[in-house]
């Protein structure tokens, strides 16, 4: 017996409508709809064509039902502007990435959740509270992904084929997750990570994550978390020149425009200077990207340790993909840009699972 909902999962993961899939596999929309509703089963030949068209191994369709991530559980930015196809594809990729997370959790003891939900203090206060809680003082954050992982947030990637889907955060069974768009500049990636942390803290498990006010609060949190007030006052002159902003952004590893915004926010740039600086930075290309910015993206410490530990047991990404009944490319899309290489060695499989009780602890540094 195949699991009918898995056909829907695979189709939505690929961002396809029933009509589009129908054309690809030369099966009527009505038949596809019947398969997805469990009214009829595809023949083995049809299933093989579906599996090929959707790029999932046939075994994928015989696994248990996967309950979807509810749309209101996530904090997509500009959610209304996003078309349903890419949105569903990103949500289902994230849902499948949760399977990898369970797989990892069965084998390793991961850092416990250390993300407090603080009620609703103003974002600036929340940023100071979390910095104090994590012993960060006012020092620049050296690596946002490592920091999040060390405090129990699980970080995965959004599928790289949907460049305009923004990062999002969600809680699931008491575990915080952040899915990052890893195609942006490294500075923007750090800001996104801090923005999503803001959602987790300010708009916790029982609160709604969406809406313009939530967005504004998460941005204010990210700005204050990455660029603490006292640190900016200490390192930047009042009314700095563009060149000073371009040097200053390196202290906090932020985009030039993000620092400019923060300086205005802290009354270190007048409205007039702020607008002028933004125009000048725009002319220099700082709206489209981050010229001479950080050399590389932040990668995941947790995933790197997991894949390295598995590799030492002779288990590569290909083996893990097979365990999860997906292609290695599918699995790679969940960690795209977060691990340095695909680590697809050719060592032979030794799939002795580590028992849950004997799971080695993954110790991460912030
Ligand atoms: Zn947001």
Helices and strands in order:
Layout lengths: L3 H10 L4 H8 L3 H9 L6 H11 L29 H24 L15 H11 L10 H7 L3 E4 L10 E5 L2 E6 L5 H17 L9 H15 L2 H7 L6 H11 L3 H10 L5 H13 L17 H12 L4 H7 L4 H7 L32
Parallel strand pairs: 1-3
Antiparallel strand pairs: 2-3
Helix pairs in contact: 1-5, 5-16, 6-9, 8-9, 11-12, 12-13, 15-16
The structure holds zinc ion.
What does this structure look like?
This protein is mostly helical and 366 residues long. It has three domains: 63 residues, 434 Repressor (Amino-terminal Domain), CATH 1.10.260; 225 residues, no CATH class; 55 residues, no CATH class. The chain is built from 16 helices and three strands. Strands 1-3-2 form a three-stranded mixed β-sheet, sandwiched between helices. The longest helix is centred in the first third of the chain and has 24 residues. The chain is globular and about 70 Å long. About 4% of the residues have low confidence. Bound molecules: zinc ion (ZN).
